[in-house]
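Troubleshooting log. The previous run stalled partway through. Resubmitting the same three chains, unchanged.
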Amino acid sequence: MTAEENLSRLGITLPSPPAPVAAYVPWVRTGNIVMTSGQLPWVGEQMRYAGKLGAELTDEQGYEAARLCAINAIAQLKAATGDLEKIRQLVRLEGNIHCAPGFRGHPGVLNGASDLMAEVFGDRGRHTRTALGVNEMPCDAAVQLSVFAEVED
Amino acid sequence: MTAEENLSRLGITLPSPPAPVAAYVPWVRTGNIVMTSGQLPWVGEQMRYAGKLGAELTDEQGYEAARLCAINAIAQLKAATGDLEKIRQLVRLEGNIHCAPGFRGHPGVLNGASDLMAEVFGDRGRHTRTALGVNEMPCDAAVQLSVFAEVED
Amino acid sequence: MTAEENLSRLGITLPSPPAPVAAYVPWVRTGNIVMTSGQLPWVGEQMRYAGKLGAELTDEQGYEAARLCAINAIAQLKAATGDLEKIRQLVRLEGNIHCAPGFRGHPGVLNGASDLMAEVFGDRGRHTRTALGVNEMPCDAAVQLSVFAEVED
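Second attempt completed without errors. Output:
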């Protein structure tokens, strides 16, 4: 199945790729790599998941926030490639979690992004990952996710 | 106009590229990519902007700190390429801000770096960006900025 | 001397490369670059260095934690390449330190990783580096280290 077919099966309609919140661009291609800027859990112009994990937000909400960042990242990858089938391989997810003292749920929260990438891209969705805590996040976002992907010539 | 002409127009003289503060190198080239180490707001051996945004430093000072990191990064890119015209495209700015609880000004502060890149490199200066808060920064630096750039063969 | 000979000389036996703690893979190759996921200071299934620098852990323990992350990263690079002599050049260490308020020892702590890379790979071990503080780290790890390396065709 194609990535688009998997998105349909999951009931996901890709949004317009979110615009940057400042003086940068949402993705750049260099050679066979596309890198996205840090994606936040926007739905349209609404920050859907604001606050800190381990304080205002539950791990379940964090998982959904990471999944939403991944949906926004896939929208950027589609804008960059025109066709998600041109993505050969995800390479890297850099996951950053806005969190309160003592939070330890980073791996499970970021699986919200990783699990979606596996469902949408299958083996092409395999990726390396970093998972860091962040004391204060732009726009009070719960999660910030950057994606590196290898694309066809 | 060339990048050097734009620097002149802005009244910026590139410094000697700052030396690393430990056992690493300031830039590496791999294929057509140059990556810099994390650049701090040094002027010579002086940390010009020390402290946390949202506490000791204003957003305006943060903007200047990010701009200074970008100047130091451009000095590294010149050392790496010998000629800034060999830079085809900036690819990525990884921006990290030393900040106190409740700080939300990351996008504006990092525009200090992004705006300068646009002024110096024009369309070649377009880049993806990440913007994270950091609880404690090496050398008490206000900002740490890493740059990825695509260069000519 | 080869990297393996240097490891022997240092009395280091590479461990089995640590398994990811969630839904991602430990390394990906894209073109001539291998990137690892964030490596933590595991010894087998034991988190050897848990806690925060500047609170529960000394800088000396942090140095050892960073060194252990680097050993685990080398194990990943060996799994990725089959032979450490296929590594042309380390490119980047992204070092992240779990730390308490006021901590400033990032550069010295991360030299635990950088010094080992120099001892094992010699000139091929030269790398760019980032050094950030992290308020809360997955698995309470003291350090998280990601490695980018350029490998042979």
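Takeaways: The domain at 3-151 of chain A is CATH 3.30.1330.40 (60s Ribosomal Protein L30; Chain: A;). The longest helix of chain A spans residues 59-81.
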